[in-house]
Amino acid sequence: SQQGEEDPQALSIQEGENATMNCSYKTSINNLQWYRQNSGRGLVHLILIRSNEREKHSGRLRVTLDTSKKSSSLLITASRAADTASYFCATDFYGPGDYKLSFGAGTTVTVRA
Amino acid sequence: DTAVSQTPKYLVTQMGNDKSIKCEQNLGHDTMYWYKQDSKKFLKIMFSYNNKELIINETVPNRFSPKSPDKAHLNLHINSLELGDSAVYFCASSLTGENTIYFGEGSWLTVV
User: Any residues with CB less than 8 A from the CB of A79 and at least 6 apart, and which?
Assistant: First the structure.
């Protein structure tokens, strides 16, 4: 089953506004990552937050992690048209000899000019 | 360019056919993956290989057979294609000990 679930499924905002999306997951994690997917393209890594971190910043991105609630949020400040994309959270899993990421279905963000 | 590259980008084929998607990475990674993204954008891992050895096989039908001739390549062969196989297939790679996965641009498979 999917590990991460993003909310909302879709978000439409005006350029310059902030966009916030949430991710909930089911089991304990080592790290949580956020990826962006532009239409018709592959996923691109944005930011990683470790399970012992509560907040992380990267440029206009701010990620929070609440392990007690098994949830994370991604905030994009001062959005631009180029931020229009789908955003996925991914939780990692370390098995014996393997590593994999489990993704949700993403939040589709549309930034209107 | 350093990247994960996969071919073809688009593939339209009839039910029952056999097709392959090729993937190569020149990032020096030792782990490669195939992910399937359905029409609702769910991204689900199918296989992962580490140094040419199959590590993860996520209950994918036997019609799907990955092959890794070396750690820079991971191809996906699909036999007897079905309508439900229509999806976008992403190849990806990573380096053991690092958490970031690098994705290819995807291969859009349409079975008619």
Answer: A13, A14, A15, A16, A17, A18, A19, A109, A111
